[in-house]
Amino acid sequence: MLSEQSQTWFPTHVQVTVLQARDLNPKSKTGTNDTYTIIQLGKEKYSTSVAEKTLCPIWKEEVSFEFPGLLLQGTPEKYILHLIVMHRSLVGLDKFLGQVAICLNELFENKSRRQKE
Question: Which end of the chain is less enclosed by CB atoms within 10 A, N or C?
């Protein structure tokens, strides 16, 4: 007979869809932004395309990340998904607009939760 843990499903990947941002503060002299989002899980990173001259960018872009280990219930290793919104500057450093961090362990452990983050 197989052990109970060997029959349990554990996620190995997470698929992230970056839909949009709303009501961003303007960072350029024109009163708009050239905005992109950096999505990061562990050491893996992905950047969306740049949405030009808008304060409400729409991307609708997807990326898939592989978990570096098993996402087990009660595991001490935390998997934090970071989304960082930036304004692309043609001169100088890009400017920070905002960020969110989502603990994927909590989403997995709270399976009854159906609300999208």
Answer: N
Interior angle at CA 25, CA 22 and CA 29, nearest 5: 130
Taking only the tens place, the pLDDT of each residue in 28-62 is: 888 999 999 999 998 999 999 999 999 999 999 99
Alpha carbon distance 102, 117 (integer Å): 8
| Closest-CA residue to 80 (of 64, 67, 70) | 67
Cβ atoms 117, 102 nearer than 8 A: yes
3-state SS of 76-111 is: CCCCEEEEEEEECCCCCCCEEEEEEEEEHHHHHHCC
pTM of the model: 0.81
**Quick one: pLDDT at residue 78?**
82
